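1st attempt posting a full record on here, be nice pls
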Amino acid sequence: MSIESRSAAVKLEGVTKKFGTVAAVDNIDLLIEPGTLVTLLGPSGCGKTTTLRMIAGLEAPTSGRVVIGGRDVTLLPPNERDVRMVFQSYALFPHMTVMENVSYGLRESGLSREAQLSKARDGLALVGLTGYDERLPSELSGGQQQRVAVARALVLEPQVLLFDEPLSNLDARLRRKMREDIREIQLKLGLTSVYVTHDQEEALAVSDKIVVMNKGRIAQAGTPADLYERPADAFVADFIGS
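the predicted structure (as tokens):
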């Protein structure tokens, strides 16, 4: 048994999210092509995490539509969207082994117990953790815990994989290694991925497309080379160039 990709396009149409009178996200339109890694980049408070949470179904848009794989999911809860999120905090169950953590989401899949374990082992192999089945999260480094979180998401074969500042808890050297690994896995599986970070270097290293956000709006979207060489305005030039 192996892990397969069922990548889907993600489309945001006129999406706005207001908290009271404040627009955290202000009427954005965005198309994320199937099988690409798109990074939402910007300073704190620019709306990038709120945008990610609306794709995940953790926040409901005040107006606009979220479409995944051609299906309007705007009003659907997270468990009906076929997306998975990798959190900054890893969010592993501390009392469960690595194998139990990775296979947990497969319990309701209808697969036999042996098939669940086989798929979980494939997930661990994909992130370089073969042989770590019986360890507890407390026996792993931060980078290894994040790999377990990635494997747990991958085994469910989502249409879209979301990353919320996944490397910010790691030291600089490990962060570089992990971003290379995430990119390698994403390319290998052809998985549609949306990645949130405030780290320009990280965004330039992993992305097919970068969406620079400022004050709830899209300041510019393009390839890393486009943004670096042809910034649309002084804000993008300063943020990418710094």
